[in-house]
Amino acid sequence: MKSPKILLTGAGGYVGSHVLQLFLEQDMPCVVLDDLSKGHRQALPSTIPFFEANIDNEKVLDELFESFTISGVLHFAGFIEVGESVNDPLKYYNNNVVSAIPLLEKCRTFQVPWIVFSSSAAVYGEPKTAPIREDAPHSPTNPYGMTKWIFEEMLRTYETLHGVRSISLRYFNAAGAYPK
Ligand SMILES: NC(=O)c1ccc[n+]([C@@H]2O[C@H](COP(=O)([O-])OP(=O)(O)OC[C@H]3O[C@@H](n4cnc5c(N)ncnc54)[C@H](O)[C@@H]3O)[C@@H](O)[C@H]2O)c1
Q1: What sections of 13-80 are H helices per DSSP?
Q2: Quick one: which atom of ligand 1 is closest to the CA of 38?
Q3: Does residue 34 line the site of ligand 1, with CB under 6 A?
Q4: Is 94 a pocket residue for ligand 1 (Cβ < 6 Å)?
Q5: Tens digits of residue pLDDT in 78-130
Q6: Which of 53, 68, 69, 138 sits between 20 and 30 A of 27, alpha carbons compared?
Q7: Parallel, antiparallel, or unpaired for β 165-169 and 114-118?
């Protein structure tokens, strides 16, 4: 029987590598997928299975999903620079939306029960009130925020049509560092 593991995409990056540390402290079995376009190999302990590839790489996705029973996905992989997204919007639509479709499809095919998506407060644009309520209107003011909103909507569709449950965390400027 294949061992169940939680898949962390983008765990070579800032937020994902911190979550990975916390998971390892709790002995949560994990596997990581990251193309290291922005992440760091040294953030990934050699004890965990690591697939160095883009989240749209069908061959690697097949190998990963066939090797392990994926019991859930924490999806951190994505480009995150607002200014760059304004200068080069297609780079962001491609990486944050288009590239994520093969990953989503694999979740459907392999009946992954849930996905936690690293969305962003950028989906709200310029909020009219603070603190921002969860149900405040969506009005992204840049392509980065738009890619997050689009992917949230795609996740809602996959939940409704295919039963892949999801939650989108709209956090804002994560800060701090793991003591180690
Ligand atoms: N840092 C924040 O304050 C913040 C706030 C809100 C939301 N987020 C979201 O959280 C996630 C992680 O942010 P971060 O600050 O850790 O960014 P980061 O750039 O440090 O990490 C992103 C990781 O994803 C990988 N990656 C990017 N595109 C990929 C792809 N197509 N295939 C495989 N790997 C890919 C990179 O190599 C990197 O390791 C992002 O989705 C970001 O939008 C971050």
Answers
A1: 14-25, 58-67
A2: 37
A3: yes
A4: no
A5: 999 999 999 999 999 999 999 999 999 999 999 999 999 999 999 999 988 88
A6: 53
A7: parallel
pTM exceeding 0.90: yes
14 is catalytic: no
Is beta strand 114-118 parallel, antiparallel or unpaired with respect to 50-52? unpaired
The answer to whether the beta carbons of residues 70 and 117 sit under 8 Å apart is no
The rounded Å distance from CA 18 to ligand 1 centre is 12
Question: Does 131 sit behind a cis peptide bond, omega within 30 degrees of 0 on the bond before it?
Answer: yes
Helix (H) or strand (E) holding 7: strand 4-9
> How many residues does this entry show for the chain?
180
Structural domains of the chain, ranges and CATH numbers in brackets: 4-169 (3.40.50.720)
